[in-house]
Fold this sequence. Notes:
This protein is an alpha+beta fold. The protein has two domains: 34-232, Helix Hairpins (Orthogonal Bundle); 235-396, Glucose Permease (Domain IIA) (Distorted Sandwich). The protein has helices at 2-24, 36-118, 120-127, 132-221, 230-234, 376-382, 386-389, and strands at 238-239, 249-253, 256-258, 268-270, 273-276, 282-284, 289-298, 302-311, 314-326, 333-334, 339-343, 359-366, 383-384, 395-396. Strand 7 and strand 8 form a beta hairpin. The model is unreliable at 8-30 (pLDDT under 50).
Amino acid sequence: MIRKINKCLMILFAFTLLILPMCLVAPEAAKKANTLADYRKLLKDLQAEQASNQAKKNSKKSELNSAKNNVSYKQNQIIENQQKITDAMNESQKLDEEIKLGKDKLQELVSAYQISQGDNVYLEYIFNADSYEELIYRYAIMEQVMDYQENQITEWKTKIERNNQLKVDLEKEEEKLNSQIDDLAKDIKSLDKEIDSLDDMYLDIASEIKSVKDSIKMYEDLGCKENESLESCLKVAGDKMLRRPLVKGKITSPFGYRTHPITKKVNSFHSGTDIAVAEGTNVYATANGTVSRITRKSSCGGNMVYIQHIVNGKKWTSTYMHLLEIKVKVGQVVTNETVIGLSGGKTTKSYDTCTAGAHLHFSLATGWYDKDYFGYNNWKAHLVDAAKTVPLPTSWSSR
Ligand SMILES: [Zn+2]
């Protein structure tokens, strides 16, 4: 029974471990703005996030610098220690020689002493003493010299032993320093990684800030009030259906993955439907709506118009590219009869690398790009095939 309970507790514990991190990571706040004030709040949050990212990065960078300094400090310490070992070994070698010399000297003294004990004359000869007192005196000195010599040798030997111990200690320290350097190298690697990912995050935040600032400017230009619903400010008139953007047309390149007509790259994504049409032809809004964005002379797409629609209560964003001329303004309310521009694609090639000849590129996405979501990838994720949605036949001659 107890084992069973234990097993249950274990499973519960494992489950908690599994679930806990999910709970700790709060779901990212839905970044949706309904008023200009919301946008300003969003901008403020993003700027705070950017500042905290910067602060984190600065602190990681200073950690990185200190780790790097620590490595060079330890490397210098190793070099210093190696020098200390070399010095100690040199000293020991010198001491060894001195010991040898000292031993010889001592041997000489011992010999002299031994000889002197048996033969006074020889003794006298060696010490050249004038009197017996003098001789005794010299004996005493000789004994002192011998003692001194012996002490000296002992001291040298102790010094050599100390040097050997120093070598052992320093080598141990070197090992320790090397392992510390290894640890620091690991820290440096992970700090580098963290800084890289913070850099990436910074760029993401920066691009989000840019797009929020663009939106704020757009809604300010439209004269939206701080707390007015942007939906009502945009005055998007509802419509009943999506219509063909051209009176006459023929599909030349479909939406989705295809072989690129210019680069010949296979599996290249095409964000819309290409419709062959003579340059300068009227292009109509696919439905009632409000112009939400205009891009001029993009290096891929040329002159582009984005329109936000509500069709049968559902939000759409339509895009028209490679236009020769744009006839609307951002914020302008259009109907499905409004000529928003003239088709291009041929003379616009001079600045637009994504067109090979006269045609209209028509994209359709769900939701409102620049309001419900931002950024190319988000827009791409919301794209649908206009040929199937409007729908568009292979070719037609009326709207
Ligand atoms: Zn196209």
